[in-house]
Amino acid sequence: MTQTVEDKGIPGGKVKVAGWRIGCFAATLTLMLLPALPARATELHHGATTGDPVWTDRPVRIDRRKQTYERLAVATIPIPLRIRVTSRATVFDSGSFSEGGRFYVLTDIVPVDPGRVCRDAPGTIAICGQQARVALRRRIANRTLSCLEDSRSGRVSFVTCRLDGKDLAEALVAAGAGWAGTSRLQAAEKKAVQQKLGIWRDPECRQFRRCPPQSGLKP
């Protein structure tokens, strides 16, 4: 049991005496443990990466083929967009337009060449390429589109859009204003072919399910 001396003439004298004895005990314990440290150190084993440099000030070439790290696939998360399309928007074809200095491409539709000319069975010629472009313009002008940005490259955004609750690309394909670019629109394309809508009024387009190269027809 440790005794302390209390001297009323020395402020804090009781604390100083007790602190001195604690210090002596700590020093004694340290001296007792020192001889055992080297013996314990010899029992330690080097780790697998002990010899690897933690940091280097020189460039190091890394061969990924020799790395065994687990690589996780990065999931693509579509970004929601609301696109306000004004009457000044430029519509290039039935699948792309620009607004506010940015270009938008509908992801799931293959657009019709604006210069495409079609001819139906009786021989009537129609400017089906321009009609397809106008079909997109009429749908989006002065409207707000609810879109998901699937990807982007510079000023170009590839988007999937809805208008009045309906998929925009699907509506265009169903009207014969484009081809199905993905399997999800094939049913809409098949229905447009059966009804001979848009580009599908042309027998050659229906025969090949794609319009063949232009043959020099003029309206």
Q: How do you describe this structure in short?
A:
With 219 residues, this protein is of the alpha+beta class.
Describe the structure in your own words.
With 219 residues, this protein is of the alpha+beta class. The chain has 6 helices and 11 strands. The strands form 3 sheets. Strands 1, 2, 3, 4, 8, 9 and 10 form a 7-stranded mixed β-sheet that branches. A two-stranded antiparallel ribbon has the order 5-11. Strands 6-7 form a two-stranded antiparallel sheet. Helix 4 (168-174) packs parallel to helix 5 (186-195). The radius of gyration is 39 Å and the shape is elongated. It starts with 12 loop residues before the first helix and ends in an 11-residue tail after the last helix.
CATH architecture group name of the domain at 79-208: Beta Barrel
Radius of gyration computed on alpha carbons: 39 Å
* Gap from first CA to last CA: 114 Å
Task: Tell me the series of helices and strands, N- to C-terminal.
Answer: HHEEEEEEEHEEEHEHH
> How many individual helices?
6
List descriptors:
alpha+beta, OB fold (Dihydrolipoamide Acetyltransferase, E2P), seven-stranded mixed beta sheet, 6 helices, 28% helix, disordered N terminus
Layout of secondary structure:
Elements: H1 13-33, H2 37-41, E1 79-85, E2 90-93, E3 96-99, E4 102-106, E5 109-111, E6 118-119, E7 125-126, H3 128-140, E8 143-153, E9 156-163, E10 166-167, H4 168-174, E11 178-180, H5 186-195, H6 203-208
Parallel strand pairs: 4-9
Antiparallel strand pairs: 1-8, 2-3, 3-4, 5-11, 6-7, 8-9, 9-10
Helix pairs in contact: 4-5
